[in-house]
Write a structure and sequence with these properties.
Length: 92
């Protein structure tokens, strides 16, 4: 199971208000490294592409949900710069 898979589902389905606040603090853009897709059956490793990109789930479109997701990946094109605005991580 990809790091943080369960945490993301709990946040996405039960803490959407927090996810939406965090989204306001998210900056940057996807560097298409594919790290967050490893282990997904729709991920085409050789090309680092998603086989269902145009219809990918909203939880994929909104990755990373929190700074924990970036920490899990090691690096990501996105970052969270203004945690005062978002209220920080729910786990803190
Ligand atoms: S880990 Fe970040 S940069 Fe890499 S594919 Fe996922 S969202 Fe894009
Ligand atoms: S974007 Fe596509 S390959 Fe990546 S996790 Fe979502 S469905 Fe899987």
């Amino acid at each position: 199971m990809k790091e943080g898979w369960l945490r993301r589902r709990i946040l996405w389905y039960l803490r959407r208000d927090h996810v939406n606040r965090m989204k306001q603090a998210r900056t940057g853009e996807c560097a298409r490294c594919g790290r967050c897709c490893h282990g997904c059956p729709a991920f085409k490793k050789s090309e680092k592409t998603c086989r269902v990109y145009s219809i990918r789930p909203n939880i994929c479109r909104n990755f990373p949900l929190t700074p924990d997701d970036i920490e899990d990946m090691g690096t990501c094109g996105f970052s969270f710069e203004d945690l005062a605005l978002s209220g920080g991580n729910p786990s803190e």
